[in-house]
Amino acid sequence: MNQQLAGYAPTPVAARMENHGRAMLKVAMASGQELFARTGSMVAYEGFIQYEPNPPAIRQLASQWVTGEGAPLMKCSGDGLLYLADYGADVVVINLDNDAISVNGTNLLACDAHLQFGVERVKGLAKFTGQGLWNVQIGGTGWVALTSRGTPVVVDCGRGEDETYVDPDALVAWSPTLKVKGKRSFKASSLIGRGSGEAYQMAFSGQGIVVVQPSEDSTDRLRARG
């Protein structure tokens, strides 16, 4: 191999899911370990891997999704190495250990198919958005990969008494154990939240983490259920 390209070669497998660079996910596929991945995210694979778009489990879940909240997923199965990406977005890999995380549907890149997941209402925001906001909660023991438009910051909300405030359009994921409420800003509203269209933020408190991306998604990911 050309020495100039040697540094980009595949690395030995160290885990079920891991980063290959900043913006690519490498998944070690094996028989019986099926994967749900964002449709169209496959950029390369080695071995024998099959793809099933819109599998029954996803069709059932999709009936609860509202436009802008969910993401079309495919089921991947087989043996080999699978590489996934989403238009150059940063990839964040999480290994759940009998735990759960609440994720914006458009930030979900892949997850183990045996994990439990479903749509949940984000409590505490109905009075700000009319009918509330909805997210996808994933729980159990297994691997999850998220995307972020730029290098994210992971805020530990348990370090102090102060609440953590986030623009909804910059939110990637959070611990479902956190308490969530809305806060409307009446003063200087034009300076807060360029992408939200409204001057309100999500306030988090309790023990857990919040993942925030440095780019406000303009697709209105957190949409009121209508």
Overview of this protein structure:
β1 and β2 form a beta hairpin. This protein starts with 16 loop residues before the first strand and ends in a 14-residue tail after the last strand. The protein has 226 residues and is mainly β. It is 5% helix and 46% strand. The strands form 2 sheets. Strands 1, 2, 3, 4, 5, 6, 7, 8, 9, 10, 12 and 15 form a 12-stranded antiparallel β-sheet that branches. It is globular.
Oligomerization status of the protein chains: single chain
Count every beta strand, where a strand is a DSSP E run of 2 or more residues: 15
Element order, helices and strands?
EEEEHEEEEHEEEEEEE
Mean pLDDT: 82
> How would you characterize the largest beta sheet?
12 strands, antiparallel
Share of residues in helices: under 10%
Rg estimate, integer Å: 18 Å
Shape descriptor = globular
Outline the low-pLDDT stretches: 220-226
Number of helices: 2
Could you say which structural class the secondary elements and strand pairing correspond to?
Answer: mainly beta
For the termini, the CA-CA separation is 55 Å
Residues in β-strands, percent? over 45%
How would you sum up this structure in a few lines?
The protein has 226 residues and is mostly beta strands.
Furnish the topology, listing elements before pairings:
Blueprint: E1 17-19, E2 25-29, E3 35-38, E4 42-53, H1 56-62, E5 73-84, E6 90-103, E7 108-112, E8 116-122, H2 126-129, E9 133-148, E10 153-156, E11 164-166, E12 171-174, E13 179-184, E14 200-205, E15 209-212
Antiparallel strand pairs: 1-2, 2-5, 3-5, 3-7, 4-5, 6-9, 6-12, 7-9, 8-9, 10-15, 11-14, 12-15, 13-14
InterPro entries: AIM24, AIM24_sf, Trp_RNA-bd_attenuator-like_dom
Organism: Streptomyces hebeiensis
Protein name: AIM24 family protein
